[in-house]
Amino acid sequence: MEIVRDFSVIIPTFNRLGYLKQAIESCFIGNETLDIEVIVVDDGSTDGSVQYLKSLESNMVSCYFQQRKGPQFARNLGKSKANGRYIKFLDDDDYLEPGALQKEFLFSKEDADLILSECVFVNPNGTVIGIKYHYSSKNIFYGLFQEGSYLPVQVSYKRSFISDLNWDNNLGCRQDFHFLTEVILRKPKTVFSTFIAGTIRQHSGERVSSLNNVKSRCSINHLIILRSAFERLKEEVFFDKYLKDVALLGLYKWAYLIAVSDFKLFKTTVKRIESYDSKFFTTKKFNIIIRLFGVVSYVKIVNLPRRIKYFISNWNIIYMLNGK
């Protein structure tokens, strides 16, 4: 018979020994009334993390080891081992606020499928440099298309609600947004909590996505995920004209963002928007130039200085990486 814990926290890790200890310990601080398991999946670390984790294993911390498959594989492995009623995915360089899991678990009384909290960003000195709030509308579908994504530390899932859902192993980036989008498309019973669940650490070892070409790839993935979500939602009864307009505007926003690096995808997205609503770009929400000459012509013009800046920036990055 399966023993069901209150919470499972899944931490994928790779060469982050300096941060990993705090991430693990933060799962227990202030959460003493809960039955918590922490599942750490090491993705082939060479910095002493493996030895540290092997010394740590207990009935509260389980460790698994794989060889450089990637964080999605690690999260899926951890999820397959989880026994908690609720699951949270925690990055190895982030950490939870004291009592965060205990506060979130209170929403189990409401039988929530999805619990969304807030988080803060800190610099290497621990100084708060930003706060990630909720979707301002408290409408999860509005937020999906207009306000980006929640970060893993902000989200807790009822395990039974995501039991047959895995992280996409083929996505190079935006895996967390894709996973959350798939959950949202299932129309979960969602609770928006009002407290800070965890901290995102901004540090010198920041992710490779700081490079322009990777940022562009991630933005492109984001747009593709949104396009797929819209196609699946547009015929739903609850997805009314207001939400459809919100979704189309969100698609355009992300299409405009990636136009500098993938103009072809921008144009196909515009055509898809116009095929759904032929008068969308003629409304007063767009400027007079777009309404007179068309959105593609407008973006071609404004794109020129953007592309010059984009290519200069990429050239400078390549120059620095080559040590020239």
Quote the CATH topology of the largest domain.
Answer: Spore Coat Polysaccharide Biosynthesis Protein SpsA, Chain A
What is the CATH architecture assignment of the largest domain?
A: Alpha-Beta Complex
* Contiguous helical run count: 11
Distance between the termini: 62 Å
Reading the helices and strands in chain order gives EHEHEHEEHEEHEHEHHHHH
Overall CATH class of the largest domain: Alpha Beta
Largest sheet: 9 strands, mixed
- Strand tally: 9
Shape: globular
What structural class should be given to the helix and strand makeup? alpha/beta
Rounded to an integer in angstroms, the radius of gyration calculated over CA atoms is 21 Å
Model description:
The chain is an alpha/beta fold and 324 residues long. The chain has two domains: 5-205, Spore Coat Polysaccharide Biosynthesis Protein SpsA, Chain A (Alpha-Beta Complex); 209-321. It has helices spanning 17-26, 49-54, 71-81, 100-105, 140-146, 175-184, 212-233, 241-258, 263-276, 288-293, 295-321; strands at 5-13, 36-42, 61-65, 84-89, 95-96, 114-122, 128-132, 155-158, 190-201. It is globular. Mean pLDDT is 88; it is low at 206-212 and 315-321.
